[in-house]
Amino acid sequence: MISLIAFTRRGCALGKRLADDLGGRLWTTARLADELGLPACGSLQGWTAARFQDSRALVFISAAGIAVRAIAPFVKDKFSDPAVVSVDEAGQFVVPLLSGHVGGANDLARRVAALTGGQAAISTATDVNDLFAVDQWAREQGLILCERAQAKAVSAALLEGKPVGFRSAWPVEGALPRGLSVENAPLGISIGLSTAENPFVSTLHLVPRAVTLGIGCRRGAEHAQLEAGLAEFLTRNAIPAGAVCGLASIDLKKGEPGLLALAQAHGWPVTFYAAAELAQETGNFPPSAFVEKTTGVDNVCQRAAQRAGGTVFVPKTVCRGATFAAAIGPVRLSWGK
Questions:
Q1: Domains of the chain
Q2: Rounded to whole angstroms, how far apart are CA atoms 135 and 215?
Q3: With a cut of 50, which residues of the chain have pLDDT below it?
Q4: CA–CA separation, 185 vs 73, rounded Å?
């Protein structure tokens, strides 16, 4: 959700236009709320705290200083903070204040400026110098950026004119950005299924957020047990948790509290399949007579991962009494957005 706040009548008029165009929601002060038919924000600090939790972007239609003071107590880091943008009530200047690349504040500022006819005041170094911004590109492409220090090093190297290597397990449409090279370099970017491969002395790993985990477990498996198994499976295979987009299992597990709690804890959807559906999958699935007798199909986790996720790249693995498998869906990358 994009949340907007304005403090004057003129600001609210602009805010309504922006909220409609951006698909957001506008708040204002208690003084103007009834008159303008808008929700009141209550205290600005309380409003900001709530929006940091439920919104992907905040737009302050006000002086930049008001926004800066409002967000200051809640700023953590660019990898978790929402985008924050301020725009004056005339719509002349749009300033991305927080999370310009990862959170998308720079792009949001450009959108707002296009709507108001104003100017986006972008100040991030890579943008000012028209250089490749790996954190922004990763967000746009649905890639998990795994190492913060290496991401900063990549940006610093590009700004200093030093070579940055590039490797990808998938083709990337378009021309390689200036500063990146497929030649060997001390520092480079690697796109793959995990963080296990290190083609450069210092490697920034990007992993597609397209991994589905198939899970099989005994009846009554507790959440803590499944969390421990999950952590072991991900660590053993060097898969970042952020790359997982969902879970899959057999429909007999629909009511398993531990499995449902695992999914909820990570914010992952779960897809359940009937035994007959899983049996239709073709491939080499390690069988279990016990699992077949209990569920009606010889393998749950790997068949479920393949059916829901695509291509299995980690087969059935036993971790802490549960079974896991990983599959990845289609990955399409381009140097454009």
A1: 2-123 (3.40.50.11220), 140-208 (3.40.1390.40), 211-328 (3.30.420.180)
A2: 31
A3: none
A4: 40
